[in-house]
Write a structure and sequence with these properties.
By secondary structure, the protein is mainly alpha-helical. It contains 5 helices and no strands. Helices cover about 80% and strands about 0% of the residues.
């Protein structure tokens, strides 16, 4: 069964990503605000927009995970299983799943 996305894919702007985060992952809003503020501070410090672009790309991927119910369920399940794993190999297996989901989604939103 393929569930519909919870919300439309937001634009990759600070305001649009924050608004989307408020809907699909409100518990992450403080982390979003902190990451955005840090990226802006780094951009000013280094005279480069690369930290801002990296932040927006990262949060676009996280929002994409959260807006897709099946993807979010698989991602969070693997995170949880990695956290409660009893061996390093078991944790590694679940973290490989987490990173695979993140990489696939990050690539997809970057390509659009």
């Amino acid at each position: 069964m393929c569930l519909e996305p919870r919300i439309p894919r937001p634009d990759r702007t600070p305001a649009a990503l924050r608004a989307a985060c408020a809907v699909v992952a409100p518990h992450l809003l403080a982390a979003y605000d902190l990451a955005k503020d840090q990226a802006l501070a780094e951009a000013l410090e280094y005279g480069s927009l690369k930290p801002v672009h990296a932040c927006l790309n990262h949060w676009a991927a996280l929002i994409e995970i959260e807006r897709q119910p099946e993807t979010a369920e698989a991602y969070h399940r693997a995170e949880h299983l990695a956290h409660i794993a009893t061996t390093p190999d078991e944790a590694r297996e679940h973290l490989t799943t987490v990173s695979g989901i993140y990489r696939a989604v990050a690539e997809m939103v970057r390509a659009e």
